[in-house]
Design a protein that fits this description.
single chain; alpha+beta; Phosphatase 2c, domain 1; 2 domains; five-stranded antiparallel sheet; 17% strand; disordered N terminus
Length: 361
């Protein structure tokens, strides 16, 4: 006789309780909406003011090229840079990074910049200046910390003196890329901090790159940071580029690395000493815009257009020959490249003219 198993009772799970109805977002009154719009407009205005202060800070120094940019991660940022003419004919260059983000960091940034300008105008050396700024930061920003690098440049001699309060090291580009290593406590930590100094001699064609840690700490989607090694390799592979081109290339690289996102403020300041000879500077610009092969092709025609050897041609000769040179460039390489070449060549020629006027004056 065939047996059979008794049917096993099937236990059904208890019915799940129905999810509570979604709560409707709280109604926003017309007054609250108006105030939110006003706040957004005020933040946008504050951002425009902040960016305007930074853009206005970049000077025109005869014999030098300077490019600077600051990109906040939010509407407002805590990075800062500044340039300050000094009584002895030198020029002060500062870059800094205030702790935090957004509006609180922006307010601290404004205070730190004001304190820096007050102390730097006393015309002391970089080390004592940072020590004085540190005391001011402790007094005015008791709950904030600031990294800051301050450099004094002698534009005529190319001498750079630097003090560093916990900031990233400057990069010196002079045939190779090296860091000017100099440590110090960030501002706002210890009122008795002293700051040492280091120096560098910048020859014609040499470049200095200053940056905040938002460059090194940019993350890709996998959470990997950009890091110093990639920055050094990028600068080394493009060391002949002019400051504006270096800044543009670095920002493009960081956007590609981070897939368009930005978690920290990014600030970059690049300065380069122009070549002593005008023709060498103009040729380097042509290489920067056109590439070496095209620049060489164009420069083969420069002598006949100038009527003299480019090495001995003065400012006026170059200005007279420039329209024909640019017409030639447009015919061979297109209007866009010719326009960019025209802008940069004219700027350089006028810079050499100003430098000559200052020397002769």
């Amino acid at each position: 006789m065939l047996g059979h198993r008794a049917a096993r009772a099937v236990r059904r799970p208890p019915p799940r309780p129905a999810p509570p109805p979604a709560l409707a977002p709280p109604a926003i009154s017309a007054e609250e909406r108006r105030r939110a719009e006003e706040l957004e407009q005020e933040l946008e205005m504050a951002r425009d003011i902040q960016q305007g202060l930074l853009l206005e800070a970049a000077p025109h120094l005869a014999g030098w090229e300077i490019s600077a940019v600051s990109l906040p991660a939010r509407t407002l940022g805590g990075d800062l840079y500044d340039f300050l003419p000094l009584p002895d004919g030198g020029h002060g260059i500062m870059i800094g990074d205030v702790s935090g983000k957004g509006l609180p960091a922006a307010l601290r940034m404004a205070v730190a910049r004001t304190v820096f300008r007050h102390e730097a105008r006393r015309d002391a050396a970089p080390g004592p200046t940072l020590a004085a700024v540190n005391r001011g930061v402790l007094s005015e920003i008791p709950q904030g910390m600031v990294t800051m690098l301050y450099a004094r440049l002698d534009p005529a001699r190319g001498e750079l003196r630097v003090a560093n309060a916990g900031h990233t090291f400057p990069l010196i580009v002079n045939g190779r890329v090296s860091e000017l290593e100099l440590s110090g406590l960030p501002l706002g930590v210890d009122g008795d901090s002293d700051y040492g100094e280091a120096g560098a001699a910048l020859g014609p064609g040499d470049t200095v790159v200053l940056y905040t840690d938002g460059v090194l700490e940019a993350e890709n989607p996998a959470g990997e940071i950009y890091g110093y090694e990639r920055l050094e390799a990028l600068i080394a592979a493009n060391s002949s580029l002019k400051p504006r081109a270096i800044v543009a290339l670095l920002l493009h690289e960081l956007r590609a690395w981070s897939a368009g996102s930005q978690s920290d403020d990014i600030t970059v300041v690049v300065l380069r000493r122009r070549y002593a000879r005008l023709d060498a500077e103009l040729y380097s610009i042509a290489v920067d815009v056109l590439g070496r092969a095209r620049a060489g092709e164009l420069w083969d025609e420069a002598g006949s257009l100038l009527g003299v050897d480019p090495a001995v041609a003065g400012v006026e000769a170059w200005l007279m020959a420039l329209p024909e040179l640019l017409k030639l460039a447009q015919g061979r390489f297109g209007r866009g490249l010719a326009r960019e070449l025209n802008q940069q060549l004219r700027l350089a020629i006028e810079d050499y003219r100003r430098s000559s006027d200052l020397t002769n004056g």
